[in-house]
Write a structure and sequence with these properties.
about 500 residues; mainly alpha; Rossmann fold; Serine Threonine Protein Phosphatase 5, Tetratricopeptide repeat; DNA Cyclobutane Dipyrimidine Photolyase, subunit A, domain 3; 5-stranded parallel β-sheet; about 5% strand; binds flavin-adenine dinucleotide; binds ligand DLZ; binds iron/sulfur cluster
Length: about 500
């Protein structure tokens, strides 16, 4: 047997053949290590469907690697001797194979990066940590972009990424003469629209094995394991993406902010879980979308809106994460301390919008962006929920959640807990926003038009209560100052009714 030269450690969100650690390796002499480990499955109590998705995708990737000629050590969760941690599994592999070095692509989360940092000393061999080239913007380039800027606005970063990739560019000008077509993306959906659904993939025998394991070991975690419909192979993830481009992308921009009862996916791509674990490549999906636009099958506002989410928002939040960690996870600008209400887990609330978002999260390990931002996120902001508790909730319940992408979205965008590093103003809104963008309010026990009283939409009193509670912190923001002035014009007895309605709602939480 040849001596293993390098041990290539591949983590659960690194399921790409183009991974830098694999590119640097020699499949005839090096050995890949992958492991299902208890620590990763429980550092937050992940949704059952998320664990099943990732374990199954990992097992299929190990098969893909073997078929490609790699030697792979794969530790299943219940394999005898599984130590339960990355470091423990690497220690076992080092003892068994005595590699000359360890090679690993940098970790997606700060917590794990710290762990890798200890391996050289622990194992006494060199550890090469390589950049994650699946991201379009290398971290040093992001740091350079951020340095010296007073405000880190996504829009300017995004334009640089357009220039860097050449996506939707005609020479040095943006295609269509505009960088951003977001103004066209504000339609609320109607029930009679044709609703595409993401394709459904029946669990194969590997996935069924994983599901049985998840049911027996993580049966008390949040979320429904069945029906399990995610793709778990690269080929199926690509088929899911192709179906999106064909059926949903043409309306992606138009209905990006819409919410509709019984329609969890609308015109969204439902691919973040594939992008984030490596089954889909971000640049490749953007190139495919540009191609669909140039071929005339999707309009520019849809193609631009989609590409902006990936080369703009996705890359930008990753840059912010690494710029601000450690410490970002404890940001709490508004000093909110209220515990997360139980209904984030049970969905037992009379608020139709929140019930819909939590119910589909339980069923699908998915909610689309506006549900995360403007329903569960806005409610938590208005109610003064501890942002760290909320962060752990988002990290646990979504199949696409990894800290590098979830944390800036929760702490920065949704809770303004970083004091405005990421968002230009808090995403505080009354029930009127949800009413405009959804059909939830029509079937709600609360009245979205009432501001106070037992039947009033809770978002309304909480919104004004939030404005007045935090006027000292938000009054300097021109977009919020207007709301403070509006509040000041309310009659005193209305202000008193707002205070007592908000107090009653909060007392019930
Ligand atoms: P689509 O709406 O179809 O968008 C296409 C793609 O664009 C997504 O797959 C995603 O890769 C990217 N994208 C869109 N918006 C964002 C964004 N704000 N940040 C980063 N990428 C974006 N996204 C995650 O991938 N993981 C998370 O853990 C996560 N947590 C979030 C928490 C909160 C509080 C909020 C407000 C947003 C969060 N997002 C997260 C961003 C966004 O909600 C999801 O990327 C999106 O809902 C995934 O569904 P989709 O694939 O159908 O996306
Ligand atoms: C999310 C997750 C889960 C649930 N389980 C594993 C696992 O058992 N093995 C593994 O390699 N990765 C897992 N992951 C993904 C990791 O948490 C992720 O790779 C790191 O957080 C990235 O730094
Ligand atoms: Fe949500 Fe208020 Fe509308 Fe009810 S009335 S669905 S609580 S916004």
């Amino acid at each position: 047997m040849t001596q293993t030269r390098a041990l290539i450690v591949v983590m659960g969100d690194q399921l790409s053949l183009a991974l830098s650690s694999l590119q640097a390796a020699d499949k005839t002499r090096d050995r890949v290590l992958m492991a299902e480990v208890w620590d990763e499955a429980t550092y937050v109590r992940h949704h059952k469907k998320k664990i099943a998705f990732l374990f199954s995708a990992m097992r299929h990737f190990a098969e893909e690697l073997r078929a490609d000629g790699w030697t792979v050590d794969y530790g299943t969760l219940d394999a005898p001797g599984n130590t339960g941690s990355f470091t423990g599994e690497v220690a076992r592999a080092v003892a068994a194979h005595r590699p000359e070095r360890i090679v690993v692509t940098e970790a997606g989360e700060w917590r794990v990066a710290q762990m890798l940092g200890g391996w050289e000393a622990a194992f006494g061999i060199p550890v090469d940590v390589l950049p994650d080239t699946r991201f379009i913007c290398p971290l040093p380039v992001f740091c350079e972009w951020a340095e010296g800027r007073k405000q880190l606005r996504m829009e300017y970063f995004y334009r640089d990424m357009r220039r860097r990739t050449g996506l939707l560019m005609d020479g040095d000008q943006p295609t269509g003469g505009q960088w951003n077509f977001d103004a066209d993306n504000r339609k609320s959906a109607a029930l009679d629209l044709f609703m595409p659904r993401p394709p459904v993939f029946a669990p194969d025998s590997l996935t069924q094995e994983v599901m049985a394991l998840v049911q027996s070991r993580f049966g008390n975690h949040f979320g429904d394991l069945e029906p399990f419909q995610f793709a778990v192979t690269r080929a199926d993830a690509e088929a899911a993406f192709a179906a999106f481009v064909c059926h949903a992308l043409p309306h992606f921009g138009d209905y990006q902010d819409a919410m509709l009862t019984g329609e969890p996916f609308l015109y969204h791509a439902v691919i973040a879980q594939y992008l984030n674990c490596g089954l889909l490549d971000p640049l490749a999906v953007c190139r495919a979308v540009e191609h669909a636009f140039r071929a005339g099958s999707v309009p520019l506002n849809a193609a631009e809106g989609f590409i902006r989410q990936i080369i703009g928002w996705r890359e930008y939040v990753r840059g912010i994460y690494w710029l601000e960690m450690p410490g970002y996870e404890r940001s709490n600008f508004f000093e909110h301390t209220r515990p997360l209400p139980d209904f984030y887990w049970t969905a037992e609330t009379d608020m139709t919008c929140v019930r819909a978002a939590v119910t589909q999260t339980r069923e699908h390990a998915y909610a689309h962006h506006i549900q995360r931002l403007m329903v569960t996120g806005t409610f938590a902001l208005l109610a003064g929920i501890d942002p760290h508790e909320l962060h752990e909730w988002y990290l646990a319940v979504y199949a696409d959640a990894y800290e590098w992408v979830e944390l800036p979205n929760t702490v920065g965008m949704s809770q303004f807990a970083d004091g405005g590093l990421l968002a230009s103003k808090p995403y505080a809104a009354s029930g009127a926003y949800i009413n405009r963008m959804s059909n939830y309010c029509g079937t709600c026990r609360f009245d979205v038009k009432q501001r106070t009283g037992p039947n009033a939409c809770p978002f309304n009193a909480l919104y004004w209560d939030f404005i007045v509670r935090h006027r000292g912190k938000i009054g300097g923001n021109p977009r919020m100052a207007q709301m403070v002035r509006t509040y000041d014009k309310f009659a005193e007895d209305e202000q008193a009714r707002i205070a007592s309605s908000a107090a009653a709602i909060l007392a019930k939480l």
